[in-house]
Specification:
Layout: H1 8-21, E1 26-32, H2 36-48, E2 54-57, E3 69-70, E4 79-80, E5 92-94, H3 95-99, E6 103-106, E7 112-115, H4 119-128, E8 132-134, E9 137-145, E10 148-155, E11 158-169, H5 173-178, E12 182-184, H6 189-197, E13 200-201, E14 203-210, E15 224-227, E16 231-237, E17 244-251, H7 252-259, H8 263-272, E18 289-294, E19 305-306, H9 311-318, E20 325-327, H10 341-358, E21 373-375
Bound molecules: flavin-adenine dinucleotide.
Flavin-adenine dinucleotide is lined by residues 32-38, 57-60, 65-67, 82-87, 138-139, 170-172, 175, 181, 203, 205, 249, 295, 300-301, 304-305, 329-330, 339-341, 344.
């Protein structure tokens, strides 16, 4: 591919890369981020045109982003350190779960989860897309002009670069506004202002698994659930031996206060919150597995979820640059779905449509006619 002299830094980077490795990589679409939005965009694009060459670059060593389900070998279900449920889908059917053949888990409070965990969604999206997902690939710089993008990233400490015709950026809003990703030409000030105006909620998640010999649910026949404005708790019996999984999410001011504490104190305080669910409070030292996540401190998230702003704000963040660089992610969703899993999915689907249109893909109108949320 001929590179414009207008982007000499990228031309030189690609030159170095080609000289060093003899590679000449070209994709139709490069997607940054393998969370729900990025994987949905890739899966939808490949479903439109299976010949499209799509590459998803993900900084972490796993897919899912803020959907982070972790399984301990003795447990029948995943522990959620990220999203717990399809929040906005309460009492509704999500057509996407049917299409992807996912097992929907209905809880006593009518919230809907996925079994064995929320990561089933991202796994299904990744598996049903023939696009390539490359992990451990943190994108550092993007150079673009109409119809051409150059992306440089670090892959296992090696600097690599790749070109594409279109780019879909799905970085969390907190990361995008932090400037961690350098984009040339830069984001317009209207988009930067919109990003700066967003309020992004902190969250700390804690999960603890206890052997049945050390913890007992008062009622092991169904999940125990609790929710208030800053705390969400779930307790499950998760094995034939009666092992107990405790999941706690602390948001807002409670997350701010906890972030000052050590991990072991966070875990102990979380266990204490389950007093109403358990026959007696177990000791942290008796746990067979623990997990924590501080989403505000995580440099690849810089927050748990965007708070809803004005429609114009979210539209501005979603708007494309030069019909070449497109944006998806929960912060670009319709305000009714901002900050949610299905909002992230919708935004990926919307970005896929925009990219397809810009590439004159005829089958653009052949998207399955499925409302993402459908009233029962
Ligand atoms: C604790 C918690 C609880 C939640 N609970 C719920 C809930 O119950 N229901 C609900 O609907 N929603 C919930 N949410 C929100 C929901 O998880 C998110 O809205 C959704 O998962 C966001 O998806 P996304 O694709 O927009 O972003 P992400 O999942 O953040 O994906 C972005 C991806 O980009 C990657 N990335 C970042 N920087 C780079 C880079 N430079 N190069 C390459 N890759 C990069 C990240 O690693 C990440 O994988 C919760 C979130 C959290 C954190």
């Amino acid at each position: 591919m001929q590179l414009s002299a207008g982007i000499p830094a990228f031309a030189s980077l690609l030159g170095q890369k080609s000289a060093a490795r003899g590679l000449g990589t070209d994709y139709d679409v490069i997607v940054i981020g393998a969370g729900v939005a990025g994987l949905a965009a890739a899966e939808r694009l490949v479903s439109l045109d299976s010949d499209l060459k799509v590459l998803v670059l993900e900084a972490r060593d796993r897919i899912g982003g803020r959907v982070h389900s972790v399984r301990h070998q003795s447990s029948t279900r995943d522990a959620e350190l990220g999203a717990m449920s399809l929040t906005q889908a309460q009492g509704r059917d999500w057509a996407v779960t049917d299409r992807l053949g996912l097992n929907v888990d209905e809880f006593p409070d009518n919230s809907l989860g996925l079994y064995p965990g929320m990561a089933a969604l991202v796994r299904a999206l990744a598996e049903s897309s023939t696009g390539r997902v490359q992990l451990d690939s943190e994108v550092r710089e993007v150079f673009w002009r109409e119809g051409l993008v150059g992306v440089s990233y670090m892959n296992r400490r090696l600097s690599s670069a790749v070109t594409g015709r279109r780019l879909v950026v799905t970085l969390p809003a907190g990361v995008l506004r932090s400037g961690a990703l350098s984009i040339t030409p830069a984001l317009p000030s209207s988009k930067l202002d919109a990003l700066q105006s967003l309020s992004i909620e902190p969250a700390i998640s804690v999960a603890v698994l206890f052997p049945g010999s050390h913890a007992k649910l008062k009622d092991a026949t169904q999940p125990w659930l609790y929710e208030d404005s800053t705390t969400r708790l779930r307790a499950f019996s998760v094995s034939v031996d009666g092992d107990v999984l405790l999941e706690a999410q602390f948001r807002g001011s409670r997350a701010d206060a906890l972030s000052e504490q050590s991990e072991s104190l966070q875990l102990s305080l979380a266990i204490r919150a389950f007093g109403d669910a358990l026959e007696s409070l177990p000791l942290l030292s008796d746990a067979s597995w623990t997990g924590t996540a501080d989403w505000l401190a995580d440099p690849l998230s810089l927050g748990a979820a965007t708070q809803v702003g004005s429609t114009l704000t979210h539209l501005e963040i979603a708007s494309s640059m030069g019909n070449t660089v497109f944006f998806a992610g929960e912060a670009t969703a319709d305000p009714a779905a901002v900050g949610t899993v299905h909002g992230a999915y919708d935004s990926g689907e919307r970005a896929a449509r925009e990219v397809a249109l810009s590439l004159n893909i005829e089958s653009e109108l052949d998207f399955p006619n499925e409302p993402v949320l459908e009233l029962l």
